[in-house]
Predict the 3D structure of the following.
Amino acid sequence: MFIFRSVVGKLWLTIIGLVGVVLLILGLFLVNYMENYFSQAKDQTANIEKLARNFSEEASHHMYNEQFYQLSNELLGFQDAKMLVISKDMKEMTLPSTLGNTLGGFHARDLYTDIELQRVFAGETIDKSINKSKIGRLKAGEEYLVVAVPLKNLQGSIAGATIIYQSLQSLEATQSYMLRLFIYVSIVGFLMTTFFAFFLFAKITRPLQQLKKAADFITRGEYGTRVPIISKDEIGELAKTFNHMGEKMQESIRELSQEKEHLSSILHSMTDAVITLDANGSVMLTNPQGEKIVQEWSTIEWSEDDEETKRYRKPDTALGDWGLTSYSNPFLVPIPVPLIPLFEAVVDESSEAATKLHVQNGVWSVAMTPLYMSEQSEEVRGAVAVLRNVTEEELLDKLRKDFVANVSHELRTPISMLQGYSEALLDDIPTTPEERMELVQVIHDESLRMGRLVRDLLDLARMEAGHLELVFREVEVDSLIRRMHRKFSVLAKERGIALSMALPDEPLILERGDEDRLEQVLTNLLDNAFRHTASGASIAVKAERAKYKNKPAIRIEVSDQGQGIPANDLPFIFERFYKADKARTRGSSGGTGLGLAIVRNIIESHFGIVTAQSVLGQGTTFTILLPCEPN
């Protein structure tokens, strides 16, 4: 029941029990005392008999003195008793009506029978108690103690009888009054106890219930809940302490939330990927970059024959041992395969580790740190991995190394030729003027080639450093293309290549452009096309209006029917010194391998884009998109 789970109920039952026990003990003592008192009162027959004899002896001297009897009855009235005097001829010497009616007026025959009176006249003393069952005129509950003694005259003979009767009604009334008083006191005690319980409910339980409700609200996250302080006692102090605790908790939660938001902002703003792993190797927490990596790497099919899987797997270890089978818990993601060896090393050695991972075409720098159970504990509960995509850095480093190698290679050949032919001239090896002129021509061509290489390198360096000065003005692109067509028409006729041009009827105007640099772009593209197109094929130049980023633009296409570029080499043809095919490196044309890199930088300086599509053995198409309006 609720009352047994309530503080007020328990206090009420406790106090009721205490009051009940106290009243029960008090009642037992009162009952015992009253029983003793009443038993003593009811055992006073001898006293009344003695009193009756004394009055009888005294009445013998005042046989017919009515005042004596009246005075005697008044004295006996203080003890709730009365006296009757009756003669042997059954005549009463005092009339009951003259004696007052305090105890009621009874006759001798009301108290004794004639036979009993004759026995008294014969000298016997008779005492008895009578009640309603003996006399019909008695009130309900009335009881009398009656004593009859012989009455002697002055000569010593029996003249009658003296009867004294005493009412026991006062004793019973007292007993009844005490019982009623005990019942009233018990009822009042229980009522006061109940009132006190409700008082406790208002003063103690209700504040406690408010504290409980406030605690429930706080557990649901409403940390601003407060309890009103309505007293200055212990409960008021408890409410004050609770409010203070709520304020401190709210401040702590606010600080934790701010720190969490701060940490979350840091993690979200990091360009590096962060992945948190538990002790079983499951992903618990990631930032957006880390989640992207986990999703991308989880879609890769790691087969046992894969070189990637063999690289990240321990010897004689099956994929199932890494947890790469179906994962049972949908809320946890298994560790990506490339991180497994590093994770095991960190967990086993309880130390930090770093490495570089090659996943497909990307390179990742990974630093992993163990997570401990606590600051004092050395038990590892997981690890945190920070991944950075260093593919571009690796590529730049490779390009740097390739640049040095390619520049050395490009310079070594002409320098060797210059040195060899100059030594031949110094040794006077040519015997005829024609041979001497041939050697000098080779030396001249190689020196021009070295000059072009150095010039292209300087231009490319200035472009990539942002120091290239462009003179922007309005450019008529259609006029530029017509001029480039005329410029390469002679070369096309010499090599037997058909050079065509396609332009719209309306003029193509570029509001801001450097005409000289755009001419350099077209020159490099056409030079590459002629260099790699065989006789009998065709080269086409096309220009038209287009859209670039939802803005008006000009599209220029340079197409050839040459050898084409392999698909694997196509993404890298705009890099410096990148050679897709050894057959396309040099030959008699003397290419430097920097032309397309220069084209890309010039087009990007004009806020445009250049792309290439090629089919091996069928030809290549370079597409340029230039916005008509400046950004």
